[in-house]
Structure formats: structure tokens, C-alpha cells
Design brief:
By secondary structure, the chain is α/β, with parallel strands linked by helices. It is 42% helix and 13% strand. It has a nine-stranded parallel sheet with strand order 1-2-3-4-5-6-7-8-9. Helix 13 (256-262) links the parallel strand 5 and strand 6. InterPro entries: LRR_dom_sf.
């Protein structure tokens, strides 16, 4: 970069620099949270002091997203206070060098299962004698407490997945809720096949009302999810005041009428709904969907058995569904009534229905 360009870059306000660097380096512009490439951010950080601070803030805000590695975990551990690292017994095992600036204050996205996975690997490679469930939980608990202390109303995205594999990890959920302020502005929440999640999700329903993107996937359970876990998930949906996108993936034994009933509280804000792996045999009416005046997209994947009677409210409430632009049917069985409705509205974007049973 020429000296004149370097001088111009140095004069840009941090807010403008943030927009330029973040948007220009994003890997996927259609993602829920657009994540810049980590390697590219480390390069932009070398331009000058201003670019360094902006690049580091962006890097740390999405530290758990694409490209999280064991070396990233070591950086997180090095950011802990020295006394804490010594108490954890990890001080001597970390790379030598100066204590890194605690950029944890910028973290706004946490993927718990990714953190747990890399703690497992790190302990397994570095501390074979201490690789115990207790040590793993202690490490994660310390890291999350560090983030919750550093952050004030900053957590935007929380993803919990795959924790049904190990019950012990489920106890780490409670760590996040020591501080209500840390999660009350949560905007994106994803939960997939998380074991013993009832109290965890109920706590979110008590605290979080600003979620705009919610993804609930209980399909990967070994058996049907417990009734209380489904109740907690539906309660979380009903508590939202700004929900725009909802993805629901359950097992065929779960009655979708309860899901539809929960939509009444988000009818004014919901723009996109995706329902997967669901049997609509007991659904007599899609009236709750017909009340969603801002609904633009409906997606049904691996679903079955929707009746003509259930679809009739969509026909009758067409004046409310003026923004509906897209209906996707993917691997659905006995969905002819909804298929015909979408064709009449000229909004059928993807038709992959089947005549043979899927289950």
C-alpha cells in the first residue's frame, strides 16, 4: 500500500473501517452472522494501529465460528488472568510469550459444542493424566465466566448442539446464566439434540425476548424428546417479541398443533418458518400461519400428511398473507393440498414431493 493510501486509511473513522473490513472479508454474505476470514483479518491488522484494533474486534467477535482450532483455544486460555491459569494447572503448558490483551470483551458468538470438543482434544493431547470430566468442566466454566465478566449485553449468538452424547457437559449450561445481563440481548439461538435442556431453555424463555432467529432441532435424539423439553422450546418461542425466522425440526411423534399455537405470539413479526420431519396428520387448521401478516417464506422438509381442510385458512386469509413470496416443499409426502395452494398463488419455488411414504 502506498504512503498516500496508508495515510487515507489511517484517517478513516473506526465505524467506517469496521464496515469496510467486515463486509469485504466475509466468507458467506447469506449467513445468519456474517463471518470474515480469520487469516485475512490477521493481515489487515498489520496495516496500522487503527486497522489493528478494528480487525481484532471483528476477529474476536466471531472467534468460535469458522476456523476455530486448538491454537485458537490456546489463545483463549492465554487471555485468562495468570492466577487463574495457574489455578487451572495450565500455565506451564501454554506457549511462552507476553499475556495477550483480553479481547474476550468483544466475543458475541459462542458455540458451546465446539468449545467442549476442542477442550476435550486439548486436554487429551496436553494433560493425559488430568483428562477427567471434572477438569474439562472446570476449564470451560472458567472460560465462560471470563467472557460473562468481560461482556456487557454483548452476546448475540449462542449455539448448543450434540450434547446428548455426554450428560456431564450439560452441567455447563448453568454457567451462562450467572449473569442475566450477558444473555438478555441474545438475537440468534440454535439448539440441536441437546440432552437435558429443559431448565436451560426455560431460563432463556425467562430472560430472552429479543431473539430474531431461532432454530430448534430435536430430530437427532435417539428417541422422542421428553414432553418437558418440547414444552420449554414452545415457551421460548412464545416469549419472543421480535422473532423473524424460526426453524423447527422434530420427530414424527411430536404433535405440531402445539407449535402452531405458539406462533400466535409472533404472528406480527415472523417472516420465515421452516418445519422439518413433522407429521401433520392431527393438524386440522393452519390458521396460525395464516395470521402471520409479514410471512414471506414457508419451507417444509421431510414432512407428511397435510389435509385440504388444514390448508383452507390460508386460502381464506390471502389478504393477510400479501407478503408470501416462497413456498418450498422438499421430500414431502401427501402434501398435495398445500402444493396446489402454492401453485395457485404462484409461490411454489421448489417441488420435490413424493407419492411413497418416507417413514
Amino acid at each position: 500500500m502506498s504512503s498516500s493510501r496508508q495515510g487515507l486509511a489511517a484517517m478513516l473513522p473506526p465505524e467506517v473501517l469496521h464496515i469496510i473490513i467486515h463486509d469485504h472479508l466475509c466468507e458467506n454474505e447469506h449467513a445468519i452472522i456474517r463471518v470474515p476470514r480469520k487469516k485475512a483479518l490477521t493481515n489487515t491488522a498489520l496495516v496500522n494501529k487503527n486497522w489493528f484494533h478494528v480487525s481484532m474486534r471483528i476477529l474476536w467477535s466471531n472467534i468460535f465460528e469458522n476456523g476455530f482450532t486448538l491454537s485458537t483455544l490456546e489463545i483463549l486460555l492465554r487471555c485468562l488472568p495468570m492466577v487463574t491459569r495457574k489455578n487451572l494447572g495450565i500455565y506451564e503448558l501454554l506457549p511462552k510469550g507476553p499475556l495477550l490483551t483480553p479481547y474476550g470483551q468483544y466475543v458475541n458468538s459462542i458455540l458451546l459444542e465446539m468449545l467442549f470438543c476442542f477442550v476435550d482434544r486439548w486436554l487429551g493431547e496436553n494433560l493425559p493424566a488430568s483428562n477427567t470430566p471434572k477438569k474439562k468442566r472446570e476449564l470451560v466454566r472458567t472460560l465462560l465466566e471470563f467472557f460473562s465478566t468481560q461482556n456487557k449485553n454483548r452476546l448475540i449468538k449462542l449455539e448448543v448442539a450434540g450434547l446428548h452424547i455426554n450428560r456431564l457437559w450439560a452441567r455447563n449450561y448453568e454457567v451462562i446464566f450467572h449473569s442475566r445481563n450477558w444473555i438478555e440481548n441474545l438475537q440468534v439461538f440454535v439448539i440441536r439434540a441437546a440432552f437435558d435442556s429443559t431448565s436451560f431453555v426455560n431460563r432463556l424463555a425467562d430472560v430472552c425476548t429479543k431473539i430474531t432467529t431461532l432454530e430448534i432441532d430435536y430430530f437427532n435424539f435417539d428417541g422422542a424428546p421428553e414432553t418437558e423439553e418440547i414444552k420449554a422450546a414452545l415457551r421460548l418461542i412464545a416469549a419472543q417479541k421480535q422473532l423473524r425466522s424460526l426453524t423447527w425440526s422434530s420427530v414424527v411423534s411430536v404433535d405440531p398443533t402445539k407449535l402452531l399455537a405458539a406462533l400466535s405470539s409472533v404472528a406480527c413479526t415472523l417472516e420465515r418458518i421452516e418445519i422439518e420431519h413433522t407429521d401433520f396428520s392431527n393438524v386440522l387448521s393452519l390458521c396460525p400461519l395464516a395470521q402471520c401478516s409479514n410471512l414471506e417464506t414457508m419451507v417444509f422438509k421431510d414432512c407428511r400428511n397435510i389435509s385440504e381442510q388444514a390448508v383452507q385458512p390460508l386460502e381464506k386469509q390471502q389478504k393477510k398473507l400479501t407478503k408470501l413470496r416462497e413456498v418450498k416443499l422438499v421430500r414431502c409426502n401427501d402434501f398435495e393440498a398445500l402444493q396446489a395452494y402454492a401453485r395457485r398463488r404462484n409461490v411454489l419455488q421448489q417441488d420435490m414431493t413424493f407419492d411413497t411414504p418416507l417413514y
